[in-house]
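Box 3.1. Reading complex inputs
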Amino acid sequence: MTMSQTKETITPAAAAGFESAVSARNISKNYGEVEALRDMSLEFPRGQLTSLLGPSGCGKTTLLKIIAGLLEPTSGEVEVNGKKVTGPGPDRAFVFQDFALLPWATVLRNVAFGLEMRGVAPSEREARAEKYIKEVGLAGFENSYPHELSGGMRQRVGLARALAVDAQVLLMDEPFSAVDEQTRRKFQEDLLQLVQNENKTFIFVTHSIEEAVYVSDQIAILLPRPSRVSEIIRPTSFRNKGVDNIRRDPEYLDIVDEIWASLRTYVE
Amino acid sequence: MQSERLRHMPNRALLLKLLSAVILFGAWEIAGRVPVSFAFPTFLESMSALFAMTLDGTIFDAYAETLKPLAIGVAISAVLGVAIGLWVGLSSTFDWLFSPIFIVMQAAPLAALIPLLVLAYGIGLTSKVLVVCIMAMPVIVLNTSGAVRNTPESFKEMGRSFLASETSILMRIVIPAASPVIFAGLRLGISAGFIGAILSELKITPTGVGDIITYSRSIADYPSMYAAIFSIILLAVLFLNLLEKIEVTLFKGNQRDYVSN
């Protein structure tokens, strides 16, 4: 198998030669009787994008929200830059699946929301918000309201809001699942650019195999009942071949097939 | 296209409102002329009676009296109602404690309860204010609490993940998110308060506008009676429009235009 060098069993990140920005250690989460996560451990390398990929009910969003500090694990702990997570913090920013934009606030105020909550002065936070609005390609829409924007543009606002607070870790919960296919492709290309330019750690939840393989430096396959990390895949060869060549790269296609082979039995 | 042009007229909404008023008042005029009942005056008769009452100042004296319980009652209901509603919506303990009271208040046949209020609080201002409050407050409280309870979870999660404090989440997320339903409650509650104010003047002691209604009916001056009723409806409509203006100014993005606009 040509794939073997790209595949690892669950080894600590340090052994693979990179530094972890986020470590999840022995995380369990129960909702009453229901076991959402059991004893899950995972390392997230600094400056890279890690996808959490799996069928619905595998606990990927739960894990992301535990890392965000929005949910408390029943047992186990998360460390971000060596500090234990006890709640939401300035080192992490979240991009929501349903955008979670405040409909009564303009794009500018939505993007500046995180800065406002951090007590940044109005003139400075507006300047910073404007900079990130421009960066996500929404210049000219500063004073529009969310309902005046398309789904894709709304998620750009959500992304700008997360970038504006300049957190080291960006948590993205199926950020592109509510936008149309063409917009999604553009987003994926932009995301690759972003990972390269911003020195941030990205944790990306998705249910799309192609999307995960396309954007990730590391893919963690999560399987349900009981929820666990079944394998970690690190694509090696196609990342630097340019956005237009990834989708026809043999390694890309192999990994997509391989992941589908291991997931198909879990899809009802 | 005709409809296209209509759609782009800046004052289309105003025109439609005027058209609606013309139809309504036209129907009233015709019904008065038929006549539907000898006790039902025409629109024009009622308007000239209103004009006469305006000229001799009767209507202003009446409103000086009626506005007292109305303004006090509406103010109390709006402020206290929204406050209690927020509290009830945020805390399940207060939900259990207060919700039943307001549900009972809303369902109670108020006219039958007025003698009890008079027994307890006399025939003065207090009883009248209470009538206004009983009419206005329940729907304000119940709407507010329901809206607060239904704040989208992802808004609150967003707030927490961007480090908003509990107070900020309440002030910047929960209240604005609930505002359309809170304002709907205020509109319903305040219109009910207007009804309450007139009801109290008819049932407790005839003062102000209630006195004009009672007195003109007793001397069969029906145009004046309908003029008084019309004036209170007009005042209510104007006030509700003002409330809508306030809402639009405060929470602009919540107002979505009709797609066809």
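In summary: Chain A touches chain B at residues 65, 68-70, 87-90, 92-94, 96, 98, 100, 102-106, 113-114, 117-118, 145-147, 161, 165 (CB under 8 Å).
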